[in-house]
Design a protein that fits this description.
Elements (H helix, E strand, L loop, with lengths): L18 E2 L4 E2 L6 H12 L11 E6 L6 H12 L6 E8 L5 H9 L5 H9 L7 E7 L4 E7 L2 H7 L4 E5 L14 H10 E9 L4 H9 L2 E7 L6 E7 L24 E5 L3 H12 L3 E5 L15 E3 L9 H22 L4 E2 L3 E4 L13 E4 L1 H8 L7 E4 L3 E3 L1 H9 L4 E4 L4 E6 L5 E4 L7 E4 L4 E5 L4 E5 L1 E5 L6 E2 L12 E12 L8 E3 L1 E5 L4 E5 L3 E2 L8 H15 L9 E11 L5 E6 L1 H4 L12 E9 L5 H17 L7 H7 L3 H16 L1
Parallel strand pairs: 3-4, 3-7, 4-6, 7-8, 11-12, 11-25, 12-19, 15-28, 20-26, 25-34
Antiparallel strand pairs: 1-2, 5-6, 8-10, 9-10, 13-18, 14-18, 15-17, 16-17, 20-23, 21-22, 23-24, 27-30, 27-31, 27-32, 28-29, 29-30, 33-34
Helix pairs in contact: 1-2, 3-4, 5-6, 6-7, 8-11, 8-14, 9-14
Amino acid sequence: MTRRAPTPARIDFASGVPHAPDYGDVYHARAGAMGQARHVFLGGNGLPGAWQGQRRFAILETGFGLGHNFLATWQAWRDDPKRCERLDYVSAELHPPGRADLLRALAGGDAPSALAAELAAGWPPPMPGLHRLAFEGGNVVLWLALGDARDLLPALAGRFDAFYLDGFAPARNPEMWDRRLLAAVGRLAAPGATAATWSVAAVVRDGLVQAGFEVGRQRGYDRKREMTVARHVPRHTPRRLPGRAGLAAATASRPGRAVVVGAGLAGAAVAQALAARGWSCTVLDRADAPACGASGNPAGLFHGTLHEVDGPHARLLRAGALLAAPVYAQLIARGVPGAADGLVAWQRERQPVPCPPDYARHGDAAATAAWTGLDLPGPTTLYQQAGWVDPGAVVRAWLSAPGVTFKGGVEIAALRPSSPEAPATDRSADAGATMVSRPPGWQVMDAAGRIVETAEVVVVAGGTGLPSIDGPDGPPDPLLGWEAVRGQITWFEGPAPLRRPLTGQGYALSLPDGRLLCGATAHRGDAEPALRAADTAFNLARLNELTGLEPAPGGACGGRVGWRLGTADRLPVIGAWPNARAAASGRRDQARFIARHPGLFLAGGFGSRGLTWAPLAAEVLAAWIDGTPMPLESDLLDAIDPARALVRQWRRAGQAAMSD
C-alpha cells in the first residue's frame, strides 16, 4: 500500500491567526487556541475528571496542528493532583510545522511557554511513522504519527479513552472526516471512550454513529453555537486477535512483577522500561556479571537507514534509531561513553535517497572530509539521529534503575505456569468495573528443577538457548528463525581520531582512549572462542578499503569474540511467545492469528543492530505488557512477531502437501 509521506506545513501568520493556505482555513478560533482546546477537547471529553484515579489514560487526536491541544492537555495533567499516573497522547499529522514555525505559533496567546519550549526541543524530523516525545520523566508521552491519518489510524494498535477530532473544516479537508477514518476511531475506542469536536457537520455526526458512538451536542466555543460530543457504546464488541491479546485489563489497577531472562542489551532495556512503569523486575543471567555476551564490546553503533522502497526493514530501523537517539543522548550526558552527534555511511555507487536534512544529509568528498576528518570519495550520508555508545555501560546503567534487580550465575532451564491468582478488578472502562483474571503467572526453574523466581510476566531476552515450557501446552516452541553468529572485532592504537563513526563494508570508530575499533566478522555455526589472526586480517583489510587507515608497522592489535543472534529476514524477534500447540487448530496464515502463552514474551534476534533495536523492543514489550498504545503500526508488529517463523513453516508444509 502506498502511503502519503508527511510534508512540512505552509503557515501564513499575516492575519494574526495562523492560516493554512493549502486548505483555506485557520488553525484555531480567533478567540484563542488554548481556550478552544480547553472548552472543546478537554471539556468535551470530561477531562480532567475522566482520567482521575486511573493508572493510565490514552488520547488519540486526528490532527496535531500547532500543538495547542496537546499543550492544554499536558498543562491540565500537571495541574491536576488526582491525575492518572501515565498519559499517552497519539496525534496524527500529515503537515507538521517546522520547529521555527512551531515556536512562532506558540509564542503568542496563552500557550505555556516552558512546555512549548520542551515540545520544540524534542521536535522530530518529518519522516513517516510514530515519533516518541517523552516528558515528565516518561509519565507523559506524545506519539507524533506523521503521515496521512487515513493510513495511520487503521494501522494503530491500542485502546484509547478519549478522541480529539480536529482536522480542518469538513468542507475544505473532507479526507480527515471520511467514514473509513471514523470507523478506525471506533475500532480503537476503549469501552465507554469519549470523543469531541468543534464540528457539527452531518458527515461527522453520521460517521460517528456508524462507528458505534452515541452522539450529542454541547455549547460551542467562540462563534460556533454548538459542538459535537460522543460516547462509544457499540452494539457488538469485536473479538481481539489472539496474537495481539495483551494484559491491559489485568494490569489496569496496578503494575505487577516481571522476570527477565538475559542481562544483555535486550533484557536490560526491557527491565528498565517496565520498571519505569512501576513494575518490579528481576533480571537473571547465567553469567555472574551483566553484558558478558555481544553486549560486552567496548563500543557499538546505532543508526537508521534509507532505501528507495520504504519497506518494513527501513521503517523499523528508522523507528529504532529515532527512538534510541534521545535515550542514548541522556545516558551519555550522565557519563556513559559515547557520542550521539551522527554517523557517516559510505554509499559507494548508490544513488542518494531524498529525505529531510534533519534526518540525513547527503554529501560529496568535501562534506565527508568535514564530517569524518578523512579524505574519502563521496557520496556519503550523515545520519543525524545516530552515533556510538559503550553497550556494557548502557546495560549497567539500565540495570541500576530503581525497581530493577540483577541476579547472576543463574541457569534457567524451564518455565512452568503457576496456579491462577484470584480475579482482579479492572477499572479502565468508564462503564464500570469488570472482573478479569490476572495472567496465571510463571515459575522460573533451573536445571535441577528448583523454582528460582515466580512472576506474572516473563520476558526471555537474547540468549542462544531457550528454556522449555512445562505443562499442558509444552513442549517448547523453538521455531523462531534465529541463529547464532560468531563475530570478531579488532582494535589498535589509532592515528588522529575519526570525528564520527563511519560505516560501509564494515565500520570504524574512535574510542575515547585513542584506540581505533573496526569490524566485524560474521561466521554462522562457529563456536571458536579464541581470537583468530585470519579474522583480524580480514577486519584490517576492510578498514583500509573503507578509510585508508591501518595500524602502524609493528603495532599491536587486540580484539574480542562474541556471538549475536540473527534471523533470516534480518529483523528482530519481539512480542508474545507463540503457543504452537494451541494454534494448530486455528487460523495460521498470519502471525496475528496465532495463539500465545499468556504473560510470556520474547526479545532477541537483534543481530548486529542491538543498540538500535533494544530501546524499540523495550517500548513494544512495555506497551504490550502494560496495556498502552503500541509504538509501531500493525504491519510492523507483524514483521517482528515471534510467530512469523511458524507461519512460514506451516505455509511451506501446506505447499508441500498440495504438490504431493
